[in-house]
Amino acid sequence: MTTVAAYAAPAAKAPLERTTIERRDVREHDVLIDIQYAGICHSDIHQAREGWGEAIFPMVPGHEIAGVVSEVGPGVTKFKVGDRVGVGCMVDSCRECENCKAGQEQYCVRGQIGTYNAIGHDGEPTYGGYSQKIVVDEAFTVRIPDGLSLDEAAPLLCAGITTYSPLKRFGAGPGKKVAVVGLGGLGHMAVKIAHALGAEVTVLSQSLRKKDDGLKLGADHYYATSDPATFTELAGTFDLIVSTVSAPLDFGAYLSLLTAQGTLANVGAPEEPIALNLFSLIGGGKSLAGSMIGGIAETQEMLDFCAAHGIGAEIELIEASQINEAYERVLASDVRYRFVIDTATI
Predict the structure, then answer these.
(1) Which helix (H) or strand (E) covers residue 301, if one does?
(2) What's the predicted TM-score (pTM) here?
(3) CA distance readout (Å), 310 to 42, 212, 302
(4) N or C terminus: which one in the chain shows less Cβ crowding within 10 Å?
(5) Distance between CA 330 and CA 185 in Å, rounded?
(6) Quick one: DSSP state of residue 234?
């Protein structure tokens, strides 16, 4: 076991504080990663504050991890010491079910093992990226291409793959009209990726406050959802809408913006249930879909795509002592567009 410094929430809703945790010794197929950067995801806040249900404490959040391999197990074939690597939202799965075998480990029938707030197959709790080092099986580690800086690559391990996967799955590309609901940590990545895929991109945001940013990121159009005229003007427009917000929406209103047989894909995860009149789906043969991150192979595909198109996250680099302040700023939508912790400051 190796003792490393980390930032942890000692209890639900408690401020995060500096502490130490134990990392397991490197096993046959493990890599030891010196973490250099860790993104702050809204889901870190949901879990640290038990917004999604009972959680495991102390909790070391962080599933947007970028660093460098410092040790490899004797059976490792994918990586060597010095490689630039990333770890996303999961660190293991059963590897045997039909979903795992199909490269959809995030939908493991027996349940994938989260990078934090989970119990591993060894019975030990998992601790995430707000720490100096992490030990991960090579099968759940991805390579960060040289074309991406590690600080801007870290958020791609969640925000990047979370938006890339539904955009690819539902055919975003030339000739398609795609709307992105919300221009935050997820939304700004959705705009960049949809634009790079060749789609015509519209941002649907509460106000026009971030319009200039949205257009610079690759959006062709930008509308305020607080203006009722937006829903009249854009009725029946979009082939695909990707909702990235974690607040409950009037889904009927957003479904009215789809073309016949269009899809509203939800990657935001509100804490409350939603109400939906099914006629808003039936009339037009529309689909309301969900999507959760992506498999390991697709995550690597996304990183390679982002490197090829010069896509990194828009980040604000912070010191570890600023984590609690950053949480409050995320909740206030006061970040453009992803906080990333310099883990050298832990």
Answers:
(1) helix 296-308
(2) 0.95
(3) 25, 20, 12
(4) N
(5) 9
(6) T
